[in-house]
Structure formats: structure tokens, C-alpha cells
Amino acid sequence: MSTEYNGYITTERIDGASDGPLAGKTIAVKDNISTEGVRTTCGSAMLDDYVPPFDATVVERLKEAGATIPGKTNMDEFGMGTTTETSAFGPTENPVAEGHVPGGSSGGSAAVVAAGDADMALGTDTGGSVRAPAAFCGVVGIKPTYGLVSRYGVVAYANSLEQVGPIAPTVEEAAELLEVIAGPDERDATTRDATEEAGEGAYDYAAAADGDVDGLDIGIPMELLDGADERVTDVFWGAIEELESQGASYHEVDLECLRYAVEAYYVTAMSEASSNLARFDGVRYGQSGGYDGNWNETFARAREEGFGEEVKSRILLGTYALSAGYHDKYYKKAQDARAWIKRDINDALDGADVLASPTMPVPPMELGESLEDPLTMYLADANTTPVNLANLPAISVPAGETDGGLPVGLQLVGPAFGEREIVRAGSALA
């Protein structure tokens, strides 16, 4: 197994049942998803030696389906990043674009699939963290509808935004993996039965990967192409032309609300992270700060030593946004913007089968490039964050490569519990 790109944090093997739909398949698992008896670090020194006493629901379902888990994959610390460079265990290199990042935060999961070191993988998507690395590594990634897949056993970053999603070489394989992990879970009250929303056959995702896009109506929010790298837009329009040649049509959509998506997303995500990560104090969870008679200093030392710079920055910003006197100015405004974004995207989907855009507005960055300018890294999430704010499903499929050979992804967004629609559309390309 090649690990020169640092795709795995641990390679401790977990065997599943002897038979099942995933028997003989290797499914790598992002390292913020709990695995009983196997270290789960979230890419952080804070949890360097944490071994969960239970499996996440999605891991239980993988094992029951006969999958073998070959290891836990590298990630941005606690899912905070777009490049997998904030991991305490070092960055991951893109295996199909030497010297470039694989995307994040599920970069390790996408990298091991692209490198052929796992058949498929699970990531988590809070603001694009499955779709971004899928686009950068030239593979397929699905962000499911919020509530379709259980989050029980996933170490929380931002509860109202994140979902576990599959990464695979093809749309059909990603759909097969989604069939295994999807469905309600009594241990996660946010899960819903898709059949109540999408009717009979709601979970038949693999069967929908038939490549039939004849008559498909695609809406293209032009706001998501404004400011995008020309190399990316050239590949994007080439993919749209390919869908047109197969019988699809497109029209432009105006979604002015999207100009506020990045701001609304980061205020929401950082605020929820501030609350979720408060538990890591060196006593209940995380490395000890070494008690010396002063509990406040002990807690501060544990968090100072355990968290990386990006995580500490987001905790500080989230705490500020929730503080007295600023809650209404920032957090409440972000929730108002979120409601606007959700309403307008749903309205746009009333007039189209799917919405399409480049997954990422830029090709894969060079390693180290975005660390020097965090704001650029945040803005790179402009095309993916609206989907999480609206709790809708989306898929990233390979759209082609730039003249320089860098992968570009096409994002397709569907209505709530419309995974079959985005799978069908995406399968025409991958």
C-alpha cells in the first residue's frame, strides 16, 4: 500500500461480515468517525490517543454489509479546512496532481480512493468537505440530504450542517455505498425515512445510475461562475455541452442570495464549533494539561497544546459571534441569511431538475499556498457551502482537466431527498 501522500492516519484493519453487498470491498473511513477499539483522532493532537468504545452507525452498517475497513484517513483538524493541511499529522498530497492539495477536509479519503489504496471511502461534508476533495482528486463524492445518513458516532464540528457521504471512483459505486449507509437511526433524532419524502424506491440509488439525461432541465446559478478561475469555467462548460449532447438542456438562474453564503456558513459553523469543542478540556476528553493546582490554567494549557492554529481561530471567532451584544449582530443575521438561501434554492429547483456549477471555483492549490492566506481558503468554499446551508443533496463528478492536467469537478444539486436525480445526472459523466 502506497502511503507516501499521507492518506492514512492509521492502517489498523477492521473486518466486516463474511457476506453482504460490500463483501470483498475495502472502504476507508475518515478519522472523525468512531471505530470501536481503533484510534479516532480527528486529525488533532488533542485526540492523539483516543480509542472509542463503540462504532458509529455508518461503521456498523459497513461491517454488516461485509466491507473491510483498511484504515482511518487523514483530515483537516476537526474538519476545519479545505486542503487537509491543518492535520496535526501533516498534510496529504494529491496523488493525481503532484505538489498540490487533495482538497479537504476529507482529503485523505479522496486521496486513498484516487490512489487505488481503497475501493471507496467515507468522508464528512460540513461545507463541501466531501465534494471539494472529490473534485480535486478526480473522483466522485456525494453530500446526502441532511437527515438521510446517521451522524451518531461522528465527532461533531457543526451539527446542523454536516453529513457523512461516500467517495468512489464512479457514480454507481458511490451510489452503492450510499445505499448501505443511508436510512433512519433511532440514536440520531435528525434522521428521517426517505420513503416518506421521496416515495417507494427512495433508497434505490445504484439503479438510478443509468446515465439517462434525456429531457433533464439544468439550472445554472451564474453567481457561482462569477469570479471562478477561467481554467475551471472552460472545463465546466465543456461538461455542460456533453450533457446537452445526451439530451439535457440548461437555463441560467439568478440567486442573489448566494453572495452571502460564505459569510452565513462560517458564522454558523464557527459558532457551532465553539460549542461542540468546549468538551475537549483535558479532563473529560483530550490530552491533559497537567494539573498544577489551578484548574483554569490547566484547561487553557490543554487546549493551547491540543488544538492547532486553525481550530483555535475558529473557536475564538465562534465564541465572539455568540457572545452577549454580538449574537444578534452576527449569529442571528447568519440564520436569517440561511433561511433566505434555503428558500431561494428550493424555488430555483421548482423550475429545474438539478442545479449545476463548478464544484470548486479554482483548480487544486499548491501545497502551502492557502496556508499563507486563510481568507482565500474560506472563499474557495463559495460553491459548496450553500448546499449545506439549505440541507440539500449534491454530487461532485469529474468534469475533465485543465490544460495543465489538474482535475475539475462538476457539482449537481438536487431537491431534498433527490439523491436519485443527482445520481442519474452525474452518471452521464462518470
Based on the model shown, name its key terms.
alpha/beta; 34% helix; globular; eleven-stranded mixed beta sheet; 11 strands; 430 residues
List the helices and strands and how they pair.
Layout: E1 8-10, E2 27-30, H1 57-64, E3 72-73, H2 107-114, E4 120-125, H3 131-137, E5 140-143, E6 163-168, H4 171-181, H5 194-198, H6 205-208, E7 217-221, H7 230-245, E8 249-253, H8 261-276, H9 295-306, H10 309-322, H11 327-350, E9 354-358, H12 374-379, H13 385-389, E10 394-401, E11 407-413, H14 419-427
Parallel strand pairs: 2-3, 2-4, 7-8, 7-9
Antiparallel strand pairs: 1-3, 4-6, 5-6, 5-10, 9-11, 10-11
Summarize this entry quickly.
The protein has helices spanning 57-64, 107-114, 131-137, 171-181, 194-198, 205-208, 230-245, 261-276, 295-306, 309-322, 327-350, 374-379, 385-389, 419-427; strands at residues 8-10, 27-30, 72-73, 120-125, 140-143, 163-168, 217-221, 249-253, 354-358, 394-401, 407-413. It is of the alpha/beta class and 430 residues long. It has an 11-stranded mixed sheet, with helices on both faces.
Instruction: Give the tally of β-strands.
Output: 11
Order of helices and strands: EEHEHEHEEHHHEHEHHHHEHHEEH
Shape: globular
Mean pLDDT: 95
| Helix content bin | 25-40%
Polypeptide structure, described:
The chain contains 14 helices and eleven strands. It is α/β, with parallel strands linked by helices. It has an eleven-stranded mixed β-sheet, sandwiched between helices. Strand 10 and strand 11 (407-413) form a beta hairpin. It is globular, with a radius of gyration of 20 Å.
